[in-house]
């Protein structure tokens, strides 16, 4: 999850929840929708509180796992409990502190692009909660897919969720109204506020399935769409072509 060295809204909310403030909530500001409230409690959920798409992704994990944008560590803890070796990463210092306190064994503070592509290899790179958005933009997606080639062990996989948000641009008749000369419609800017303090803006990518497939195949991956839900979110598996 993105953060500022000056202020870490999500991390502060997670720490507050961890320390007993069960009502700690972050306000999420978006360039495409109205403000939304994200209760910190949502990131502390148990397996059966997770959406089915996330539970499916956890079932598909194998080997040594990199949990990217791990938040409060709920997915990492569930996988640890199943006997997996998991490294959880997040750029939020608050999230990292919470994960360490909750018992995630291997935690590091950095983003997916800082992960060393030579020293460590993973059988699964896990990116949940629209986690593909961590790449930020289509340019970032292209960069990440190249970088991930060095992170994956032979036969390794990327399990990522994303959403097609084209429905946000439909007119009353259901036709898409897009600026074809502007940025890709799935590139969204966010800021977060906690207790009247706002962190910096950060980009987030919502990739429709076609564009993900195009970019992944161009980078040498095979793409399988494993599952989808009723909110335009899908789970994709990317594996390197042999």
From TrEMBL:
A Pfam family: Methyltransf_25
Residue intervals of the Methyltransferase domain: 65-156
InterPro entries noted in UniProt: Methyltransf_25 (IPR041698), SAM-dependent_MTases_sf (IPR029063)
Keyword hit for Lipid metabolism: no
GO biological process, one term: methylation
PANTHER family: METHYLTRANSFERASE, UBIQUINONE BIOSYNTHESIS O-METHYLTRANSFERASE, MITOCHONDRIAL
Identification of the protein by name: SAM-dependent methyltransferase
């Amino acid at each position: 999850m993105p953060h500022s060295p000056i202020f870490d809204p999500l991390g502060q909310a997670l720490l507050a929840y961890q320390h007993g403030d069960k009502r700690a909530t972050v306000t999420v500001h978006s360039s495409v929708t109205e403000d939304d409230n994200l209760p910190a409690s949502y990131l502390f959920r148990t397996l059966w509180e997770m959406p089915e798409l996330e539970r499916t992704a956890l079932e598909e994990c194998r080997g040594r796992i990199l949990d990217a944008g791990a938040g409060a560590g709920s997915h990492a803890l569930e996988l640890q409990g199943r006997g997996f070796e998991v490294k959880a990463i997040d750029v939020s210092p608050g999230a990292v502190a919470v994960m360490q306190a909750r018992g995630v064994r291997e935690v590091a503070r950095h983003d997916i692009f800082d992960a060393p592509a030579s020293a460590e290899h993973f059988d699964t790179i896990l990116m949940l909660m629209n986690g593909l958005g961590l790449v930020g933009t289509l340019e970032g997606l292209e960069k990440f897919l190249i970088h991930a080639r060095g992170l994956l062990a032979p036969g390794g996989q990327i399990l990522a969720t994303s959403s097609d948000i084209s429905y946000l641009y439909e007119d009353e008749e259901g036709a898409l109204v897009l600026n074809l000369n502007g940025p890709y419609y799935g590139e969204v800017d966010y800021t977060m506020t906690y207790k009247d303090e706002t962190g910096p803006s950060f980009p987030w990518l919502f990739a429709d399935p076609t564009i993900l497939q195009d970019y992944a195949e161009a980078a040498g991956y095979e793409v399988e769409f494993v599952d989808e839900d009723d909110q335009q979110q899908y789970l994709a598996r990317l594996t390197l072509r042999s």
